[in-house]
Design goal:
- By secondary structure, the chain is an all-alpha fold.
- About 65% of the residues lie in helices and about 0% in strands.
- It is built from five helices and no strands.
- Helix 3 crosses helix 4.
- It is globular, with a radius of gyration of 13 Å.
Length: about 80
Amino acid sequence: MSRLKILMLTRLFPSREFPSFGTFCMERAKALLRESGLSITELALELGFSSPAHFSSRFRQLTGLTPSDWRAAASAWPD
């Protein structure tokens, strides 16, 4: 689903049934960090961020870890 469609849905149906775009985006980022070999730059562009710095800053605000630190921690978790 495109970023625009998700944003439109969250504005049309502002309820707890639909996650906020930020939540959805960060969950997608976590999945990509865990499952893909994309660089942080590639991942940021894939998610629609204007720069890797903006993505990293937002990711850290919401998770408390940088994307690189989160990826390293996630790789140590059991499957």
